[in-house]
Design brief:
This protein is an alpha/beta fold. The chain has two domains: 256 residues, 3-Layer(aba) Sandwich (Aspartate Aminotransferase, domain 2); 124 residues, Aspartate Aminotransferase, domain 1 (Alpha-Beta Complex), CATH 3.90.1150.10. The chain contains 13 helices and 14 strands. The strands form four sheets. It has a seven-stranded mixed β-sheet with strand order 1-9-8-5-4-2-3, with helices on both faces. A three-stranded antiparallel β-sheet has the order 12-13-14, with no helix packed on it. It has a two-stranded antiparallel ribbon with strand order 6-7. The structure holds pyridoxal-5'-phosphate. The site of pyridoxal-5'-phosphate has 14 residues, from helix 3 and helix 4.
Length: 386
Amino acid sequence: MIPYGRQDIREEDIDAVVSVLKSDFLTQGPMVPAFENRVASHVGSKFAVAVNSATSALHIACLALDLQKGDVLWTTPITFVASANCALYCGAAIDFVDINPKTYNISVEKLEEKLIFAQSRGILPKILVAVHLCGEPCEMEKISALSKKYGFKIIEDASHAIGGKYKNSFIGSNHYSDITVFSFHPVKIITTAEGGMALTNNALLDQRLRLLRSHGITRDEASMTHQPDGPWYYQQIELGYNYRMTELQAALGLSQMDRLDLYVQTRHQLAKRYQDLLRDLPLSAQQLDPESYSGLHLYVIRLDKNAIKNTHLEVFNDLRASGIGVNLHYIPVHLQPYYKKLGFTPNSYPEAEKYYSEAISIPLYYGMSESQQDQVVQAISKAVGA
Ligand SMILES: *Cc1c(COP(=O)(O)O)cnc(C)c1O
């Protein structure tokens, strides 16, 4: 089976992890800050807080921005459930904005319409989670202008987008947002096995993220209510969690960072090749902004169902039967049973649901050969009856 994505682990990654195992610190040593500094300086962000997953990063990002009961967070229905669940963890409500059918990202037009309506009802969102689907950046300039006009905060869920650029700045530089989140799950662009990071340019947010990552505990005298009782002393000043990343994970991430640019470049070469090879088939691909540089975590095709005899499900099954590990990113979040119980109903976000009935993620990863890619293209041609 040719998988839709996979990690690239080399001897130098293994050596980096083994040397941590032989060192004094398995957690809370020098590797985590080194990894944080490396990512922050690469993407041009002042601060970076490494955690045990992007899901944790999203949770503490919401808490750092004071999301709570009575507040609302908005995001897109075409994302992994974690982009929405973070609101519910904080006791806040969730709502969705439909997608742009060409970019598959949140529609800025629909966002503005919904903001105008929400303002008239006095129910404006506190936070918008902008998801860079497949690594393609959302229209951040416009979203940022709307955030100033309507007074909401922005978290970029850049789980797919490390190494990508929005116009001239790296994703993670937070030029148009408060906090950006990366994921280092093995299917993502670089991996720490499990892991994530929250980046910000705001020193107060950085402080809160660090507190929330580790039980809400501080050892900083200036943050305490009184002088330390002694050298052992710490204070818990917030309700935090244990969301820390281990030294083993950070060492792996640091080693993987050496190849981040190579990984994203290779994904672009493969994507360009797909674009040429799939050109005449009855399907379309994500529209990429020529002024930006996608992280290209995923390559999604949308079937032109009017031109194809087989159903979406038949095409999908046919590809799997041909040994192509296709997948579907994503099932619209509002159609999940848990979200239906919250009151969401089908047909609320028609573009998202149409996307779901046509989309297939095809294999794209560093190390994929041209002959594997040709095999994928052949299988797709056959499945769509071309
Ligand atoms: C993978 C992913 C997450 C969650 O990442 P974890 O590190 O597995 O917690 C969140 N949002 C999006 C869009 C993702 O793809």
